[in-house]
Structures are given as C-alpha cells and as structure tokens.
Amino acid sequence: MFFSGVTYAATMPYASLVGVDTLGMSPGWFATVMAAGSILGTLVSLTLGYISDKLPDRRLLVLATALAGIIAHGMIYVWPTQLSFMIAMALVMPVAGACYGQCFAYVRVYYVTHDPKRADFMVTALRMVFTLAWIVVPPLAGWIAAEFDIFNVYLASSLSYAAVAAIFALLMADKATAVQMPPPVRAEGASLLSTFALPLGTLAGLAGLVVMTAAMRILTFTVPLFIVGDLGGTVTDVGFYAGITAAIEAPCMLLLAYLTTRWTKETLLAAAGLVMAAFIGIASILTSMAAFYWLLLLNGLGTAALMSVNIPYVQDAIKGRVGLSTSLMDVVAIAANLLGATAFGLLTTGGNYRFALMVGAGVAVVGAAIMAFGNMSRLGELRTAEAT
After folding, report:
1. How high is the mean pLDDT of the chain?
2. CATH class name, domain 2-179+197-387
3. For residue 94, which of 343, 344, 335 has the smallest C-alpha distance?
4. By Cβ atoms counted within 10 A, which residue in 77, 306, 349, 361 is the most buried?
C-alpha cells in the first residue's frame, strides 16, 4: 500500500504541469486525454471487479494491473512526448488505475476470511499507510522535479509499480495468502440481477461521492498552476502543498475512525464535502503562499474523510461482492476524474485559475447536498443496532 501510494503521490500533483507546462498541451487537450482515460477506466474497473470475484486467485489481477503501471509511467519517462503521454494516460493507465482498488479488495477478503473482526481496522490502517506516501513523496518529488527533471516523478512511479508487482509475486508463492469470497446466495425465485442490486440511498451516496471527488479533481488539476501562476510559488511549493495535506490527513483519519463509531458514514461524507467547499472557495481569493499553507488544515480534514470513510462505505454497496463493490471506488474516482478534467479544460481555457477554484467549491457543495438529501434517514448518530 505504501508503494501504491507512491505511484499517486509522485505523479498526481504534477500531471497538469507535465502535460500543459512541459509538453505544451493546451488545457483543453490535456483535459480531453484525461477524460478519455477516465471513460475507458470505468469500463476496465467494473470488468476487473466482476472478474476478481470469479477468479480462484485475485492476486493475479493486482499483479497484472501493476505491470500496466510499470509500462504506462515508464513510457512517459523514457519517451517524454505528447504522444507517449496521451497513449499512457488514455490507454494504459485505465488498467493500472485498478491496482489501488484491487489491493484493497484483496486485503478485505483476506481479513474477512482469516480475522473478520479486524477487517475494517486493517482497511483503515492500510489506507493510512497509503497516506504516509503522500507525506514523504510529494516534497521530495517536487525537489527532484525542480532541481533535475520533472519526468523523474514518472520513473519513481514506474519503479513503485514494480515493487507492488514484486510483493504480490512473492505472496503468490504462499498458498495461505490465496483467498476468495463465496458467491452471494440468491433468494429462491429471484433473478441473477438481484445479487447486484444497489439501494436508492446507496446510488445517491455514490453519485454524491462522484461529484465531491470531481471537485477535488478540479482542485488537483488547477492548484499546481494556481500556486505557480497566481500565488508566486514554485514547483517545490506544489510538492510541499501535497505533503503537508497528507501529513494533516494521517491524524485526521484516526479521528474519523473514531467518529465512524458515533456517526453514520453518510453524515461524515456530506460534512467532508462542505469542508472541501470551504477550503477551495477560500483558497480562490488568497494572494499569498503563507495564507494558503495555513488553509491546508481544512484541506487535510476534508480529504481525509473523502479518501478513508469512502472505502468501507463503497465496500458495503453490493452485499457479498467485495471485489465488484471495491471496484466502485475506481468507478467513483474515474467518473470524478472525467468530470473534473472536463471542468478543468472548460474553466481554465483563458488561464483564469481562480474562477476554476470558485466553481470547484460550488461543485463540492452540490455533491454534499446529493449525499445528504439522498440519505436523509441515515444522517446523524449511529443507531444502536448499527453501532453493534
């Protein structure tokens, strides 16, 4: 999970700087490439999620997706052109992007099989390990990008995917780590589709997650350019922004782990959307890096909730289908990437990054509202039956 975190932490803060500033793509073309990858990634993720619940050994999918990551980001490093960036991000990374979700699906199934009482705890703990990579890597990657070559961040990601592949290859040598969930039992007379059913409240929650995460994507794509262009910062500041946010996330996740025993996940996620809206909205009117750094307290709290509470929320979506449910994390992320990249392309065509952030704040509010109004009966404190 740490190396999986490195693959994101080394590259995501710099994607728009590489595509737009370094390779010379227009914001609109960059957004189109990212959107195309998102569309394909949605289909790939659902397919792999369904397959993972059928395969006798789900570790094979983690290995395959990690190999795709080696190829995609290795291609950008070895062949740094607009064409390689387009091929990697639109065609290969949709497969590699499923590695994150399939790792969590494997962890969930392993602990449900061997130690069910620890399953939720271990998923949360490993999400914190993922976050540790975001504390360590972005400042280091920012320094390397500024002092040497920005494409080195893709080398770091490719090597990290190689580490994930090596770890799972070693796991496959141990038969005890081969686990799988039994298929869900279909009620007598019920159709096959009934085993894939999603309640309306869950559908609303997933839609709200997509919209709130899209606001975060608008932030992710816009803020590096905003820091460099509007706040007078540097590429190194971009790395510190990501690292500081992650450092705040880690203790916030501990707080959220406690709050999930008191409040429903829907309540926490809707509140997270409002916190993100406050951060993005206030950031859009700032004029100095110093003030921006102080504001990262809000960013860390909101991001921690949307990136940790969402995991058990999504994994419970389709009963008895952990792999397919977990793949919905990828679907949410990919759909959000599609919306966020499209919005980024439209909103920043004239180079107005402040306006893009203002719209991002509004999008976060809309997502929180969808989550809240679609789950009114689920808002508030946990009921006794749920808590036990």
Report:
1. 84
2. mainly alpha
3. 335
4. 306
